[in-house]
Structure formats: structure tokens, C-alpha cells
């Protein structure tokens, strides 16, 4: 038996979502929220337990089968704490237990693995967190009919937003729940552990691990899940005049180099933006920083492989990429096959390369630089 068990809490009523069914069973992007959550856990080496409202056990089992996972279904209780306790009673002899909200259905598997890794490295309680980015104020007691009175701004530098899965030493979590009645109601498992005087470690969370609570949250999830196949476009331009050799499409060419903080490989950079754009993950600047000293002079391959890894973290992989290079030189056709092999190896999928000129129009036509336009097709 695996050392790790994951309790997926899916017993909430979903009143604020307004779909008329328990939240985890509401449909988003063509499948129940619970199905999306379980798909995200399919690659994790752990025993899965799903806690659901009474009467929905068969539905949960069917959802787990469609998601491609083996899951033990447990009937939950009146409160979240009751449901977690029910799941905890069914985990058997697992050494570590993760408690995960099914409503955080887009949580990347990489976040789950970070929690498990922290437990294996010696932590007894682990929570994924994100920095708080909004301005936060405290609220004083209501003084008039118009509502609450705002207090002072709270320093957000010391605040973190908590996510799931939260991971625990199984014996510690059992001890925390055994003492829970004396501590009062709680909707957070780490809080129960801290009430025992035990430390809670933090690992990096993920923006995709947001909780689907309201209709607006469901709309956001719908847009992110969307089709299983997506297309992205990226473009990059670099002028000649760099100090290093000319590098383009992952190859070294004769002639002066391209300007840029890295090697100026416009083809690789355009591919990065196309891949990230297809997955809705930003661009090359958000991936590595446009002026990070560690990437000074770095080859374009470094960025392409980093983009592919970022896609994998979020459940995407490239299917193919097409790149067109605009410029007077170098002549892409003379080494097309070599360039396609090099780029395909970086991307892990077929990459086609073509070249054209602009008939002398503009800076590119005058031979002052090179432009590349890439189109990427990715699949979930």
C-alpha cells in the first residue's frame, strides 16, 4: 500500500454556486467539478478517497471511473470537519494524509507533489500558500445602517492565502481531530494542528488552485479548462549587432549575432511565447524575466525547454509548432531539416520551419534584423 492517502472532500452543498446540486457534482466545461479534480490527481502516487453526500456514492464512483482513477467513496457528514473525519477513518495505515477540496479542481499535480515532497523531507504539516496581492483592511463593528466601518490597512507582506491539498503526518491529523471538539468549529485542518502547538510548513501554491465557490469562479474555470486542444501565436524580433555568434532556430550561423539579453534567438523566443500563450500562461518575460542575470547570453533552447516544463506542470503538452522566419539572412532553407530536428527535440513534438523575405520593405527587408512568427498547437 502506498504511504500517502488523499482525502478529496466533495460533500459541500454548493449553495453559493447556485447550480441546484452539490457543488462537486455541478458541471463545468462538460464534466463535474469532481471529475476535473480527480483527473488532476491521476498521476499522483497515492490512495484516493472521495467524501460525498449520502446518496451520491454511485455517482462518485462513476465519475472516478471516467477520470481514470481508482477511488474509495466515503459518505460525508453535516460539516466539512465531519466529512474529513469520515475520510480519515478510512485511510487505513497510510503514513501521510493530504486533505484536498474538490472545489479546487484545477490544482496542478505539481502542487500536490510539492506537498508530498515536504512531508517526505520531514515536515509534519504542510500547506500550499500564495502571497496576498489585494489591499486588505480590517473591519470594525457596524456603527450605522450603511454597514461595517473600515479599519486600518493590514500589512499584506506578512499575509498568505491558503490552498489545498494540505498534508499531514496521519497520526498528527488524527490527534488534531480527536481534540477538535474542545477547540470549537474549524474549516481548516492546519488550524486544528496548530492548536496543538505543532508547526505548519508552507510550500508554493498556484494561481490555478483557486476555489470554485461562486458562479464567477465557475466561469473562470470554464474559460481555463475550455477545449482540450488550444492554439497560441508568438512573435519576436531582434536586430543584428550582438557581440556573440549568430544563433537562430537553435543553430549557429555565419555572420554577426543578434542583439538581446540572451542569444537573441528570435525563433526560439517566438516558440516560447506561442506555447505559453496557448496555455494562458503568459510570455517569455513572465517565465524567466527579460533581464535576469543568470540568463545573460543563454541559448534559446533553455527557454524553450523551460516553457515545455511549465506547460507540463499545468497539464498541457505540445502537439506541433510551425515557425516562419522573416529576413534577408540567414537563408533558413539551406539548413531547414537541421533546424527542424533541433527544435523538435527541444519541444518534444514536430516543429516545421519556413523562411521568407519582405521584398525589401521595412527594417527586416533592409537586412537590419530577423523576425519570427510561431504558431503552437497544444493538448491537455
Can you tell me about this structure?
The protein starts with a strand and ends with a strand. 32% of the residues lie in helices and 31% in strands. Strand 2 (27-28) and strand 3 form a beta hairpin. It has 2 domains: 4-225, Spore Coat Polysaccharide Biosynthesis Protein SpsA, Chain A; 229-379, 2-C-methyl-D-erythritol 2,4-cyclodiphosphate synthase (60s Ribosomal Protein L30, Chain: A, 2-Layer Sandwich). Strands 1, 4, 5, 6, 7, 10, 11 and 12 form an 8-stranded mixed sheet that branches. A 5-stranded mixed sheet has the order 14-13-17-15-16. The model has no long low-confidence stretch (mean pLDDT 89). The longest helix has 14 residues, at 266-279. By secondary structure, the chain is an alpha/beta fold. It has helices at residues 33-41, 57-67, 80-88, 109-120, 170-178, 180-183, 189-194, 215-225, 266-279, 284-288, 300-313, 336-347, 362-365; strands at residues 4-9, 27-28, 31-32, 47-52, 71-75, 96-101, 125-131, 136-144, 147-154, 160-162, 166-169, 201-204, 229-248, 251-258, 317-326, 351-356, 369-379.
Defining key terms:
380 residues, alpha/beta, Spore Coat Polysaccharide Biosynthesis Protein SpsA, Chain A, 60s Ribosomal Protein L30, Chain: A, 2 domains, eight-stranded mixed beta sheet, five-stranded mixed beta sheet, 13 helices, elongated
Helix content: 25-40%
- Amino- and carboxy-terminal Cα gap: 30 Å
Mean pLDDT: 89
Unreliable residue runs: none
Biggest sheet layout: 8 strands, mixed
Described by the principal axes of the CA atoms, the overall outline is elongated
The amount of beta strand, in percent, is 25-35%
Amino acid at each position: 500500500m502506498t504511504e500517502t492517502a488523499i482525502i478529496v472532500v466533495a460533500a459541500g452543498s454548493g449553495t453559493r454556486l447556485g447550480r441546484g446540486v452539490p457543488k462537486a457534482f455541478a458541471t463545468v466545461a462538460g464534466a463535474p467539478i469532481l471529475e476535473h479534480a480527480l483527473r488532476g490527481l491521476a498521476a499522483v502516487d497515492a490512495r484516493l478517497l472521495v467524501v460525498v453526500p449520502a446518496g451520491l456514492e454511485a455517482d462518485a464512483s462513476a465519475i472516478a471511473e471516467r477520470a481514470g482513477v481508482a477511488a474509495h467513496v466515503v459518505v460525508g457528514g453535516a460539516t466539512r470537519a465531519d466529512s474529513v473525519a469520515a475520510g480519515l477513518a478510512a485511510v487505513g495505515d497510510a503514513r501521510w494524509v493530504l486533505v484536498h477540496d474538490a472545489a479546487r479542481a484545477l490544482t496542478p499535480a505539481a502542487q500536490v507533489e510539492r506537498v508530498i515532497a515536504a512531508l517526505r523531507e520531514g515536515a509534519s504539516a504542510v500547506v500550499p500558500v500564495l502571497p496576498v496581492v489585494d489591499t486588505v483592511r480590517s473591519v470594525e463593528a457596524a456603527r450605522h445602517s450603511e454597514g461595517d466601518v473600515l479599519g486600518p490597512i493590514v500589512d499584506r507582506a506578512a499575509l498568505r492565502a491558503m490552498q489545498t491539498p494540505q498534508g499531514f503526518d496521519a497520526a498528527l491529523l488524527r490527534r488534531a481531530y480527536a481534540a477538535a471538539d474542545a477547540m470549537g468549529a474549524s474549516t481548516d485542518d492546519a488550524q486544528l494542528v496548530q492548536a496543538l502547538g505543532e508547526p505548519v510548513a508552507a510550500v508554493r501554491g498556484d494561481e490555478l488552485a483557486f476555489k470554485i465557490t461562486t458562479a464567477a469562479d465557475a466561469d473562470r474555470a470554464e474559460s481555463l479548462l475550455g477545449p482540450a486542444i488550444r492554439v497560441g501565436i508568438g512573435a519576436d524580433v531582434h536586430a543584428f549587432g550582438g557581440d556573440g555568434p549568430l544563433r537562430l532556430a537553435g543553430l549557429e550561423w555565419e555572420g554577426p549575432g543578434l542583439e538581446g539579453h540572451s542569444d537573441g534567438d528570435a525563433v526560439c523566443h517566438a516558440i516560447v511565447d506561442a506555447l505559453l500563450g496557448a496555455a494562458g500562461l503568459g510570455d517569455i518575460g513572465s517565465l524567466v524575466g527579460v533581464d535576469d542575470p543568470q540568463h545573460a547570453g543563454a541559448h534559446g533552447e533553455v527557454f524553450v525547454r523551460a516553457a515545455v516544463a511549465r506547460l507540463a506542470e499545468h497539464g498541457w503538452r505540445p502537439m506541433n509548432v510551425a515557425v516562419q522566419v522573416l529576413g534577408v539572412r540567414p537563408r533558413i532553407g539551406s539548413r531547414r531539416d537541421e533546424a527542424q530536428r533541433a527544435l523538435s527535440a527541444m519541444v518534444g513534438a514536430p516543429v516545421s520551419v519556413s523562411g521568407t523575405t519582405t521584398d525589401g520593405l521595412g527594417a527586416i527587408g533592409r537586412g537590419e534584423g530577423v523576425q519570427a512568427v510561431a504558431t503552437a498547437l497544444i493538448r491537455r
